[in-house]
Amino acid sequence: VAETDQWQHFPRLHDRYPELGTGPVSVEPYVSAEHFELEREHIFRKSWLIVGRVEEVAEAGDYLAIDIDVAKASVMIVRGRDGEIRGFYNQCSHRSGKVMRAGAGQCKLLQCPYHGWVYNLDGSLRGIPDEKGFFDLDKTQLGLTPIATDIWAGFIFVNFDPEPAEMLADFLGEFGTALGDYPFDAFADNMAEWRVELNCNWKTIKDAFQEPFHLAFVHHRTIGGIYANPSNPFNYVLDCILYARHHSMSQPGSDTPVEPQGLAKVARDFGPAEGQHAASLATGAKEVAYTPGTNPTRNPNWDVDLHGLFPNVTMNSFAGGRYLINFLWPLAHDRTLWIARAYFPKPTTAGELFSYEFNKVFLRDILMEDVAVVEGTQQGMSSGGKTLLNLHEQEIMVRHDHKVIGEIIRRARDAQGG
Ligand SMILES: [Fe+2]
Prior knowledge:
The protein has 418 residues and is α+β, with helices and mostly antiparallel strands. The chain is built from 11 helices and 19 strands. It has a 7-stranded antiparallel β-sheet with strand order 12-18-17-16-15-14-13. It has a 4-stranded antiparallel β-sheet with strand order 5-4-3-6, with no helix packed on it. Strand 16 (313-318) and strand 17 form a beta hairpin. Helix 3 (33-44) packs across helix 11 (396-415).
C-alpha cells in the first residue's frame, strides 16, 4: 500500500491541534542541567506525582516509604487505624532523621531509628525517649509534617507544594474522567516490576513510550510483526487526544499479524494469553474492557492505548484487559530511575498462570529493546552534533510535552528575569 493510501485511512493528528506547530524542537531540555533544576522546582515540586496504589497499603499500619530524588525528599504513605491513607515527609521532628527506610511494610507505630521518637499512624507524636532532657517541647505541634496527598482510581498521589495550585481532580481534568473507571484494581494481585537506572534524561525514555511509530524498527524482533503490516507499515494510530497536560493515543493491531513463534504457541496451547494482539486473535477470545478513555474511536481493530500522565508517568491499556505503567523518576539531567510495572489479571488456571508469566518476560524483552536506544539517543543529544529534533506527525505526544514543559520553563525563566 502506498504511503498516500495510509494518509487517507488514518487521521492527521495535527489538524486538530494546529497550535502545536510543526517546526523542529530543541535538544536543550534533554541535556541542560539548568533546565533540569527548573523542572525540579517548577514541575516536580509543583505537580501531583503517583507514589503507589491503595492495594499496597490495604490494612491499617501498612506503609510505603519512597525516596523521591528529584524532590530532594523522602515521603511516607501510611494507612491509619481509621482507614485513612495519609502522606508525610519521612523526617523526624527531632533532628530530621529518616523515620522509615525506603520500602513497604506493616507497623503498629512509626519509630525513628536515630533517637527513638515514636509517632502514631496518623502522624501525631506519641512519645520521646528521655523527654525530660528536652526544653519546652509542645508535643502537639511535633507530629510528622503532612504532605498533600490524594487518590484517583486507586493511585496515591502526593504534591510537594505546601499549597497546591490545583486539586488532584483539576490537575487530571478530562484525562481523569476518561480513565477514572478503568478497572486498575482488578489487576492488583498479578504484577511484575522492573527497575532500571538509565543514563538518559527522563524525557528521553518517556518519549519512547509515547509513539508506536518506532515499533517496526526498534521492535522488529519481537512485536514489530504483530503491529506493522502492509496496510499500516509505520503503525499510525487510530486517534490521539491532547488534554491540557496529559494525552492519549490509540493503536490498532494488525489485520495480518505475524506472530513471534513463542507467543503464538503459548496462546494456542495455554490461552487465553490476554494482552498481546496476536495471542488474542489466535485464541479467538478478544475480550475488551472499554471505559470512556480506552479505544475512544471504538475501532474493532484496536489493540492498545498509550497514555501520558504529566509529568513522569506513561501507561498502556491493552485489549483483553491488562496494563503497563512506567514511572520515569529523574535522578539528574542525564540519569533516570525507570520503574515499569506490568499488571495482569489473576490467573484462574495453570494455563493462564503460564501464559501470564510468559507474557511478563516477553514484555520485559520488548522493554529492553526500548532501553537499547535511549542511552545512545541521550549520548547523541549531549554531543552537540545536532541541536534540533525533527518530529513526525505521529510523534505528536512528544511534541505536546515539549510545548507543555517549554511553557512552564519559559514562565520560570521570565520570573527569574532571565
Ligand atoms: Fe518501544
